[in-house]
């Protein structure tokens, strides 16, 4: 390690999942470790009391390494598990109808595969290998003259002869015309694409059959960039440090590679068999993945290096698929409204609807769009990763064992919980936390400021880690492996998140001169959109108070939109039209937003009677 390196630096270099919500700036106190042997130079911090310091407790980001050390990293200072169980998704008849309805288009994938049996060259038929291939593609129905990358052209002569002139050729639907993306011996499986939802906290990958649109495998993992900060501003700052940009890019690629490698293993495929990719991510995540300068995203006047990118080759991006595979990035419209939200808007058909629609993607960077086919206005608010489990004592992403729904029958009664896949409770995911807040508030166990009420005399009110807490499951209860609880500190973070979303919605409506009652359709996307109970979200003031039939849930709209970009030429054109039509509202310069945010720091709102 270099002189001045900290325990945090050493952990990053070793690939250890050490938690540092602030990106190692020494402000969050999340990276506390215990020095068991050796010595280091500590820097005082309010979170390390004198008693803890005597026991060897140090902040990893403030503990300078001076020699060999033995360091114990407690569970609360580590990132959540990076891998989630993989699931096989069967495309049902209803799913297929929904996909067709959303796209409304004839299938036209980003990459088409042609099975060719070419005639052997002779003295009379002495075309060059590339020209022979182009002729075969034309006879197979490919319009136009294809181009071919040099690396594939170098492989072509040997491959043609080894395969007996029988090939599978993948051709990309590129802007400048057809371009050969992969060539292999005949007899391979169906053409496969990779759809990626590149989130600040969670990355989701899906292998897609480009002929049928069926999902082959899907997987999710926490974005390993979390070790450099939980929010996009922290990561931009971290990227600006020496070597920070390269580190963040490597962490993003490592996350994607782990997902892809596991998906390929499950599907029995090789990297070269994945011949196209579509990526939907917010502006900062795309910049960090591609090594673009993100610094100006956070500096006035908040201008990214690029909102729209050309189709790139996988080798340029670092994605672990066929090197010549085209990689399409969903366009963004501003520094904080990126391709992920446009992909979701595309997927829900908002741009083709006449009804006034409110689209909400409540991820770490909450993004909201209001409008219809005539006009649209979008904004983003910093919600933080609380609803995705980061920074919450017993938080986790939506995975088997996560508590996704909670009902409390009475003030004294034990909560009834529903977990994903019916597994023993392991932690709380976003929808479960929203339910719990609403249920506690309704029963007087939580006050309007989001604080637990000790006078409520609820037997589930306990103390954990020096903080008041509500015990959802005790270790051993219904098979729970540990105590699962929500503390006052957790509730404060959740209150900030819900306030950001509520304030953003109210600000958009005010800018448009509309009342909430005029919204005819509310589409909730993101991981929350898979299990959220709208009535509970309304009860805490996160969503507008509208009739239940106006709410619908899009699940992972970003991933669904990435699927459409892989499968449909018209979808690829439509998302460009959407990017041209959405007016970007920058909340950081909008005085009304801050007023609304302060007013929203109550349940349900400060103007509640």
| Top-tier CATH class of one domain | Alpha Beta
Percentage of residues assigned to helices: 25-40%
Please state the second-level CATH architecture of one domain: 2-Layer Sandwich
Number of strands: 26
Radius of gyration: 26 Å
Share of β-strand residues: 15-25%
Can you put this structure into words, describing what you see?
This protein is an alpha+beta fold and 609 residues long. Among the domains are: 7-77, Roll (Ubiquitin-like (UB roll)), CATH 3.10.20.30; 110-185, Ubiquitin-like (UB roll); 351-385 and 497-557 and 565-599, Nucleotidyltransferase, domain 5 (2-Layer Sandwich); 386-494, no CATH class. 29% of the residues lie in helices and 23% in strands. The protein has 16 helices and 26 strands. Strand 9 and strand 10 form a beta hairpin. The longest helix has 25 residues, at 488-512. Mean pLDDT is 88; it is low at 81-92.
């Amino acid at each position: 390690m270099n002189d001045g390196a900290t325990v945090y630096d050493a952990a990053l270099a070793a690939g250890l999942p050490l938690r540092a919500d602030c990106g190692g700036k020494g402000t969050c106190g999340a990276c506390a470790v215990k020095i068991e042997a050796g010595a280091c130079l500590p820097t005082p911090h309010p979170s390390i009391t004198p008693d803890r310091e005597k026991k060897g407790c140090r902040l990893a980001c403030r503990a300078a390494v001076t020699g060999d050390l033995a360091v114990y990293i407690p569970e609360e200072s580590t990132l959540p598990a990076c891998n989630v169980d993989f699931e096989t998704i069967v495309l049902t008849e209803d799913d297929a109808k929904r996909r067709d309805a959303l796209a409304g288009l004839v299938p036209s994938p980003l990459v088409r595969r042609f099975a060719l049996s070419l005639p052997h060259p002779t003295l009379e038929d002495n075309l060059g290998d590339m020209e022979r291939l182009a002729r075969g593609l034309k006879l197979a129905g490919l319009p136009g003259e294809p181009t071919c990358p040099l690396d594939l052209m170098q492989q072509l002569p040997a491959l043609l002869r080894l395969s007996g002139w029988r090939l599978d050729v993948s051709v990309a639907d590129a802007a400048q015309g057809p371009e050969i993306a992969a060539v292999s011996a005949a007899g391979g499986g169906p053409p496969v694409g990779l759809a990626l939802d590149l989130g600040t906290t969670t990355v989701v990958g899906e292998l897609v059959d480009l002929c049928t649109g069926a999902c082959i495998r899907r997987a999710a993992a926490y974005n390993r960039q979390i070790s450099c900060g939980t929010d996009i501003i922290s990561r931009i700052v971290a990227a600006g440090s020496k070597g920070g940009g390269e580190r963040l890019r490597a962490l993003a690629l490592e996350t994607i590679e782990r997902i892809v490698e596991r998906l390929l293993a499950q599907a029995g495929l090789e990297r070269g068999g994945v011949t196209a990719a579509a990526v939907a991510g917010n502006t900062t995540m795309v910049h960090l993945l591609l090594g673009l300068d993100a610094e100006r995203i956070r500096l006035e006047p908040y201008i990214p290096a690029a909102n729209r990118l050309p189709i790139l080759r996988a080798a340029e991006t670092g994605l672990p698929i066929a090197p010549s595979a085209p990689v399409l990035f969903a366009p963004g419209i501003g520094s904080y409204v990126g391709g992920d939200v446009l992909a979701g808007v595309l997927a829900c058909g908002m741009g083709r609807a006449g009804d006034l629609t409110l689209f909400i993607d409540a991820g770490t960077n909450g993004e909201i769009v209001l409008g219809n086919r005539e006009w649209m206005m979008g904004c983003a608010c910093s919600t933080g990763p609380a609803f995705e489990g980061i920074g919450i004592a017993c938080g986790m992403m939506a995975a088997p064992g996560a508590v996704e729904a909670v009902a409390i029958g009475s003030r004294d009664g034990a909560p009834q919980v529903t977990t994903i896949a019916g597994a023993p409770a392991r932690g709380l995911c976003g929808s479960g936390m929203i339910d719990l807040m609403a249920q506690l508030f309704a029963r007087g166990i939580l006050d309007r400021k989001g604080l637990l009420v000790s006078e409520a005399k609820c037997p589930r009110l306990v103390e954990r880690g020096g903080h008041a807490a509500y015990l959802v499951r005790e270790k051993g209860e219904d098979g729970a492996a540990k105590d699962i609880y929500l503390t006052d500190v957790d509730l404060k973070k959740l209150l900030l998140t819900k306030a950001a979303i509520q304030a953003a919605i109210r600000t958009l409506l005010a800018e448009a001169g509309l009342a909430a009652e005029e919204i005819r359709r509310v589409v909730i996307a993101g991981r929350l959109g898979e299990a959220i109970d709208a009535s509970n979200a309304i009860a805490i003031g996160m969503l507008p108070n509208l009739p239940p039939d106006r709410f619908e849930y899009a699940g992972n709209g970003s991933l669904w939109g990435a699927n459409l970009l892989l499968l449909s030429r018209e979808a690829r054109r439509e998302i460009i039209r959407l990017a041209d039509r959405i007016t970007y509202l920058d909340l950081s310069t909008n005085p009304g937003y801050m007023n609304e945010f302060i007013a929203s720091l109550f349940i349900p709102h400060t103007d509640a009677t």
